[in-house]
Amino acid sequence: EFHYWRLPSPSLWLDALQKLKAGGYNAVTLYFDWAYHSPAPGVYDFTGIRDVDRLLDMAQQVGIYVIARPGPYINAETDSGGFPGWVDTLKGRSRSGAADFQAASDEWLTHVDQILARHQYTDGRGPIILYQIENEYGYNTDAGYMAHTEQLVRSHGISVPFTQNHCCGDSTWATGTGAVDIVGQDSYPQGFDCSNPTTWHGVDSLPRFRDDAPIYAAEYQGGSFDPWGGPGYDKCRQLTGPDFEKVFYQNNIARGATMQSFYMTVGGTSWGWLPDPSQVYSSYDYGAPIDESRQLTSKADEFKRLGYFVNAVAPLAKTDSATAPAPSNSAIHEDLRVNPDTKTQFVVLRHNDVTSTSDDTTTIKLSTVDGTYPVPQTGRIRLSGRDSKLFVAHYTMGASKLVYSTSEILTHATIGGQDIAVLYGRNGQSGETVLRYSSRPTVTVQSGTATSTWDATKGDLRLDYSHTNGTPIHLRISGGGTARPLELILASDSDAAAYWRYDTGSGPVLIRGGYLLRTATGSGSKLALTGDTRSAGPVEVFGAGVTSVTWNGAVVPTTATAFGSRTGSLPGPVPVSLPSLTWKTHSDTAEAGTSFADSGWTHATKGLAADPYGFHHGNVWYRGHLTPTGAVTSVTVNATTGTSGSFAAWLNGTYLGSGKGGRSITLTVPSGVTKTGRDNVLAVLVDDAGHNEDFKADDTQKEPRGLTSVTLAGTSASIDWRIQGDLGADHPVDPVRGPLNVGGLGGERHGWFLPGFPDSGWSTTTLPHSTGTAGVAWYRSTVTLKLPANQDTPLALSIADSASRHYSALLFVNGWQVGRYVNDVGPQHLFPIPPGIVNPSGTNTIAIAVWSKDDTSAGLGTVSLAALNTYATSLTVGTVQAPGYDPAIYGG
């Protein structure tokens, strides 16, 4: 799973897809976020950061299939589960056949399907192989709505099979009205409590919904979201780390699953007001294998080992369950699957209690058409706690016959007149591999240590060795009646992850070295490679007839080895230095005062909720005019903001206090503040943190947002309310960044967050800074960067402050809201900035809107730029063009 809309820099979509392809994935799952493309009824944008045509062309270019998931509902811990704000104002129940909702849904699908239809594998034009109807649609379901949606989508020219991802509830859509071709099951067996990352739960069992359909894990846990105040995504990555991946994903294989899609695989950013307010903060890193800043983690290594294996060992795609003799150690569980055509066997070993951390050994009994064997024949299989192993037996590996191995297969290929196979195991653990030959072959130990034993009766060559980090064993096995010699590479887990396999026009190549191999293009004796390095280091290339190698266009001098490869060295990046930031500041709470001109604001004639006025995202100001005959002694305020939102109130410019959304609070009015018999202004700022999701199709996303009620003590005067949110409301004045980027703060409505805003009149300051006054203040910094060319340097804004200070902040870089920070809640303190948004060799504008909740802790902590890493790369990133400050629009 990858979310293009959580990465608003299209050049980086290619980066993500290349990393998926290089990591062994053969397909990517894509949600298409309706709200991201449609700010108003009939208005749709598929350009710039919303150009999904370009995205699908990139997938075709990379050579990776696509499972398209356009909803119309997507969930995804995003605002309204992907419904636009205007859809939340419809009267009919969403995700049903209600006339108004179905008309809106049809409108969305008509627009997006026009694009998807051009990229279908069935038409020979693109990568889309499956199309998901709806999403986790198990509660409050409407079969007529499903059937109508399917008929509509077919009428749009969508011909690939339909799928659905059952999660919860009664409806699976396997049969009956609205049934789809392939039903999948969503499963998150570890749950979402990253606070206890060492707590494991038992393995689950994926259902086969129909006999004629595969077992499909439509969303299988690839990480976990983290809530406001949570422990942070490093803990989520531990909860769902490589050990979890190994045990649970191989268990799915043991259960017969032939399709597994992992949610999430590429972390992202819920920039602007994208996030669902109750579950996630700005970071959607998810503890994913590829993190929010697009860096590969150890989880990516485990996925790579699995993906390479799945793509290399074709008999795995068709297996039946079989009964295996019990392992010698009763603590160990064994699953056996057999391909009915090739008779290839797949043995999966794990602990009976998958939560066990004990270190155990065992032997197993293996019976194939090659004979019956105690495995291993010498020693024992070691299975550490929370580990799993997947062995292959009776398998044709190139020109050689693999009888069995207690090492796992990474990949194998025929390259340059020889077969090359990479097998791996845990560091320090022994391995045993048995190959079948018609006569005794010649075994040459080219590097490392291994012993070989020949059984002339069976024709078995047994190899015994130990896997060791940093020193792969190379064995050359020739003769024995085979058509080609076998170059057998026996590596540790970590060393195996250093290999990259690509199929070029000149045949397959195997590369060891570099941080990432993006592309490989072969032409005769020439091999052109592109990719990334984190440091200078060696590279080894296996390619048929290759004598000339280039890396990112530069020649790499190489020498031939005894292994049939060529070795050389790759350059690394140069160090990165970042400038410190200087700041200016200005107050932004004019809306609270009595002299503020609000005549142009919208009168709240439809109630106090913000959505009916087109203000769907971000902060909303209310100004209520009243003429009391007596002193107002207190104000009771309630606002519905979403879990992470808050509100604050002022009477005639005097700050009364703040509260949390959804909780009524009574604020005392100091004596002398009320102006009896005259116009008084009660100003309320509400942080609309986003809309709920509609997980159970019960319209929970329609819960009102904004001011809910206000009660005055000391007067019965009526209040004439006026409301102001983001500039342009449903028709944003900045269509490039779109409706989710900003809200209704004064500084947002006047362009204070944009490059080019004239801030010469602002006060200079240093951070940390205290304003001494509750309310909103802005901070701006203009910084010139000179990052090294041809390097990918993920940057982030870093904020440090004492949790005793009570403020929230909106963080803008070059006009893009890259995150929302709540100082006394956390946990996020690093906010990645995508390349393309940041200018690596020029001027950048950072703007921070700080809303302080009390006078004593008002202000902002220390803010700096951080380089999260740097890589020498072939990646080129285009600048995301977006409007700067325009006085004709923002008015100063």
Topology:
Layout: H1 11-22, E1 27-31, H2 34-37, H3 52-62, E2 65-69, H4 99-116, E3 128-132, H5 143-155, E4 162-166, E5 182-187, E6 215-221, H6 233-239, H7 242-254, E7 257-263, E8 268-269, E9 283-284, H8 298-312, E10 320-322, E11 332-338, E12 345-351, E13 360-362, E14 364-368, E15 371-375, E16 381-383, E17 388-397, E18 400-405, E19 408-415, E20 418-425, E21 430-436, E22 441-447, E23 450-455, E24 460-466, E25 473-479, E26 486-492, H9 493-496, E27 499-504, E28 507-512, E29 516-523, E30 526-532, E31 537-543, E32 548-551, E33 554-556, E34 559-560, E35 566-570, E36 583-587, E37 602-603, E38 618-626, E39 634-640, E40 646-651, E41 654-660, E42 665-668, E43 680-688, E44 706-713, E45 720-724, H10 746-749, E46 763-765, E47 769-770, E48 775-784, E49 791-792, E50 795-800, E51 807-813, E52 816-822, E53 830-833, E54 843-852, E55 859-860, E56 862-867, E57 871-872, H11 887-890
Parallel strand pairs: 1-2, 2-3, 3-4, 4-5, 5-6, 6-7, 20-26, 30-32
Antiparallel strand pairs: 8-9, 10-11, 11-12, 12-17, 13-16, 14-15, 17-18, 18-21, 19-20, 21-24, 22-25, 23-24, 25-26, 27-28, 28-31, 29-30, 31-35, 32-33, 34-35, 36-46, 36-48, 37-45, 38-43, 38-45, 39-42, 39-44, 40-41, 40-43, 47-55, 48-54, 49-57, 50-53, 50-56, 51-52, 51-54
Helix pairs in contact: 1-3, 4-5, 7-8
